[in-house]
Design brief:
The protein is α/β, with parallel strands linked by helices. It folds into two domains: about 60 residues; about 140 residues, no CATH class. The chain is built from five helices and 15 strands. The strands form two sheets. Strands 1-4-7-3-9-11-15-13 form an eight-stranded mixed beta sheet, with no helix packed on it. It has a seven-stranded mixed beta sheet with strand order 5-6-2-8-10-14-12, with no helix packed on it. Strand 5 and strand 6 form a beta hairpin. The longest helix is centred in the N-terminal third of the chain and has 36 residues.
């Protein structure tokens, strides 16, 4: 007896059941033909015997439990996809939030037009030292004897005893070539094309260098620090960046 004939006879033998129950049973038995090529009669016995078990209540239509299983399975899949989509959305949002407002390495960016009223200037000493503490800063170099800056906090910067201090702020600065040292603590700083040799101390800091295809002689010492292998290092470079690092990272800037 082939499976089609088996199912036809089983349907007739289940005539005492209501139509929904009968369809559930037939659908359940038919599903086994998808999993195996063996005849249904070998698996369940004669259609009369199988129908009698359902009619006598010896077994119940397993389709209900299978439906529940299938619904649960589909629900889990949907929830997994939704959770994955949520993680992806959060990740993209975090990436956009963390992304720089513009390419800091582009010294011709319109955001760096210092003729704008949002930029301020102060005279710089012959040897300038910069201290950056718990702040974010992007430093550029220019040929003027001034520090031209734009900070998120509306306050005037001051230079005391040859030291410019940036604390708990977010600043863009054009500094003169006579800048000699930069001390950075717990901050995120980008140096864009440094144009003079510098002594740099960094503590718990992420320091990025926008080299713009230039080579620098990096002399880095300290403890528990990480240095990117992608920095353009050359011992014969004209400019030396002497960096003393502690619990800090030094890497190339990427937009």
């Amino acid at each position: 007896m082939n499976n089609k004939t088996y199912l036809t006879k089983l349907e007739k033998c289940l005539s005492g059941l209501d139509k929904p129950s009968k369809q559930d049973i037939l659908q359940e038995i038919k599903s086994y033909t998808n999993d195996s090529d063996s005849p249904l009669i070998d698996r369940f016995g004669s259609p009369e015997e199988l129908a009698k078990q359902y009619l006598d209540g010896v077994i119940t239509a397993p389709k209900i439990s299978k439906k529940i299983f299938n619904i649960t399975k589909k629900l889990i899949i949907v929830m997994s996809l939704a959770f994955t989509a949520l993680l992806l959305t959060v990740g993209i949002a975090a990436w956009y939030i963390a992304k720089d407002k513009f390419n800091y390495a582009d010294i011709n960016a319109k955001q760096l037009d210092t003729s704008s009223v949002v930029w301020k200037s102060i005279a710089a000493p012959s040897e300038l030292n910069i201290h950056i503490n718990h702040a974010k800063a992007v430093l550029y170099w220019h040929d003027k004897d001034t520090v031209t800056y734009q900070c998120s906090r509306e306050k005037n910067q001051r230079i005391d005893s040859n030291v410019l201090k940036i604390h708990s702020d977010n600043c863009f600065l054009f500094v003169p070539k006579q800048t000699k040292s930069i001390n950075i603590n717990a901050a995120k700083v980008v140096l864009v094309e440094p144009e003079s040799s510098l002594d740099i101390k960094i503590d718990k800091t992420n320091l990025k260098i926008a080299e713009n295809e230039k080579f620098y002689n990096y002399d880095i010492t300290g403890e528990r620090y990480k240095v990117s292998k992608n920095l353009r290092q050359s011992e014969t470079a004209e400019i030396t960046l002497s960096i003393e690092a502690f619990k800090a990272t030094v890497e190339e800037y990427e937009y």
